From TrEMBL:
Pfam families: PAC3
Lineage top rank: taxon: Eukaryota
PANTHER family given in the database record: PROTEASOME ASSEMBLY CHAPERONE 3
Name assigned to this protein: Proteasome assembly chaperone 3-like
């Protein structure tokens, strides 16, 4: 686990986990208007998603999640992005999430572990 250098203009943190026997690297960076989360088991970016909270007059928030690049037929990836943007929104941030998932498989267990690890570390960068 490594936290960002205070002199670096982008707040970031990283960690390496073993998830279901696969080395998983996670990097979280907070820019002025975006949060970038990269989780990889394959050493590359994989599918890239964008998630944001939609402004509205109703009390129930709505979220927009779209696949920017990669697999578009994976509903579990969209569910993962939704859980993370809800957590970001509930923590008081209005930043957009850019999520990159380069995973060996998209099983529920792996995605739950990634969501859990990221939500624990987000407070360090938001």
């Amino acid at each position: 686990m490594r936290s960002s250098d205070p002199a670096f203009p982008v707040r970031n943190t990283s960690l390496c986990l073993d998830i279901n026997g696969h080395k998983t690297d996670i990097i979280i960076s907070s820019y002025e208007d975006h949060i970038l989360v990269i989780a990889t088991q394959i050493g590359s970016m994989g599918t890239i998603l964008q998630a944001r909270k939609e402004g509205g007059v109703t009390s129930d928030p709505t979220y927009s999640i779209s696949v920017v690049f990669g697999k578009r037929d994976e509903p579990m990836l969209i569910a993962c992005a939704r859980q993370l943007i809800e957590h970001i929104s509930n923590s008081g941030s209005s930043k957009t999430l850019v999520l990159s998932l380069g995973l060996r498989d998209h099983s529920l267990g792996i995605l739950k572990s990634i969501v859990s690890a990221v939500t624990e570390k987000l407070a360090e960068v938001i």
